[in-house]
Amino acid sequence: MMQSSPERSVPSLYNQAESGILRGMNIRVTSISVLVMSVALVAGAFYTEPSARAIGVAREVLNPFLEWYYVVLVAFLLFFMAWLGTGRYKNVRLGRDDERPEFTFFSWIAMLFAAGTGVGILFWSVAQPILQFQDNPFVDSGMTPEAATVAMRLTYFHWGLNGWAIFSFVALVLGYFAFRHDLPLTIRSALFPFLGERIRGGWGDTVDVLAVFGTVFGIATTLGLGVQQMNAGLGAVFGWEVSLRLQLVVTAVIMTVATLSVVSGMQKGVRLLSEFNVWLSVVVVIFLLLFGPTQYLIGLTVEATGDYLQNLLALTFHTNVTRGSDWQAEWTVFFWGWWLAWSPFVGMFIARVSRGRTFREFVMGVLLVPTAITIVWIGLLGGTALHHELFGEGGIVDAVAVDEAVALFVTVQAMDLGNLTLLAVGALVVLIATYLVTSANAGTLVINTILAGGDSDPPTAHRILWGVVLALLTAVLLVAGGLETLQSAVIMAALPFSLVIMVMIAGLLRALGAERFAARRGRRREAPHEPWIGTDDAGQPREEAVEVEATVESPEQK
């Protein structure tokens, strides 16, 4: 049984204003974040074309670097998380040694999946397999049965273990320092092993600002994708045309509902919506199995899963350097940038709902369960579209070539289910809407938690303010150029935070050096040293080691 570190005189929150309009918020982080977002909004609203062009040029310049940099970083995180979940520290708990999880396993999985990839996977579960089916660098020719299997493999790769390794790492670090070392639940707490209480200063502010920056653009990108898809769904149900005006109206409605929902808090708002999303998703899955090409869907999902696992190592380190195409930049760089940009938001959200779980429980739950759900979901939806192209009348490829947002609804309509088609499309529209609301209200709450110095119950006025900011930024990105601009923006927003992640890795490793563990049967005799814990009277980190009792019981002693 491991023990918590000795109590330290660390303030519960960071630099909160005691009065005025910023009451309860970190003055410097909030002011800088508002300024940065204001500049982004003004540039996007009044200088739309130059802004879109500048984002595109920046992406083109950075692509050769990001094609290997993101690959190396994500590969390391995957293996690092596997080690944390199975290695010497697997029994370390996110909290006190005697703590138990706050939420049931079902509620926990529902919340982390809904906030994590719900919107994105609805958009890409059909669009990506169909686009990869047409052409990818791993097949000689597209539109063949072999290309269909490879398309599923690549889609699983971009939505599977590697991406969830990013989310789970950020979540584990935040949960570890917040619940085991009693530090505020904010990104800067990961720097405590190096800076001590100096994280209250400029370095800590910088890290939190970068986290807010990445989070805001990550959420705005996903909301933009979801709104475009909602537009397509509403067109399928009511016959409305796809238009920017309708997308802006949908954005306003979704963010209004999300902002009102976030005021109700974690237990009521996010949990109930997340559980509803899961049950409605189950209904959709059963519907596809009953009315779709059942045998083909099961067979393709099983075969593509094996193909994905067999090629996982090669794909993880693939940089496309010898093929001379834009595939790596258009797909892997975009998706790794999307996961990285979302990681402060999803990581903090997952950390909040994961208190009391051990590293082993956490890693196995966050890595494996969402990946398994993703495989089934993409296998059924993407498989239905591929079956229609290979053995049916086709037409989905042509529709997706015009607009990726219509992929999901064109696939359902191609199933030719009569009156059930409208019911299925309506259910999907509701599912997209609830996933959008879940992601938006959870994201708004996380942004405000960072700005409030780790306060899990930030002021209501600021929750409303940042709900408005997210709505405006989403609208600006939609106006600035749609999908391409959204993709470029999220890639650029992720780069600064990727540097923070490397510092977080070092901080976690240093902190774990003080944890007790049973590397082998018997007793560990040497007390671990924890030089980073505690501060002296001047508020600086202590240089001397703080000795922690390190006896570990053997199985016989237990």
Structure, briefly:
The chain is mainly alpha-helical.
Low-confidence stretches: 1-12, 518-532, 534-558
Percent of residues in helical segments? over 70%
CATH C-level: Mainly Alpha
Counting helices, strands and paired strands, the structural category is mainly alpha
* Total DSSP E strands: 0
According to CATH, the fold-level topology is Amino acid/polyamine transporter I
Number of helices: 19
Range of strand content: under 5%
Biggest sheet overview: none
Description:
This protein is mostly helical and 558 residues long. It has one domain: Amino acid/polyamine transporter I (Up-down Bundle). It is built from 19 helices and no strands. It has helices at 27-46, 48-86, 105-116, 118-134, 145-159, 161-180, 192-195, 202-238, 244-262, 266-291, 294-310, 312-316, 327-353, 359-391, 396-402, 407-414, 419-451, 460-481, 483-512. α8 (202-238) packs antiparallel against α17 (419-451), α17 (419-451) packs across α18 (460-481) and α18 packs across α19. It is globular, with a radius of gyration of 24 Å. It starts with 26 loop residues before the first helix and ends in a 46-residue tail after the last helix. The model is unreliable at 1-12, 518-532 and 534-558 (pLDDT under 50).
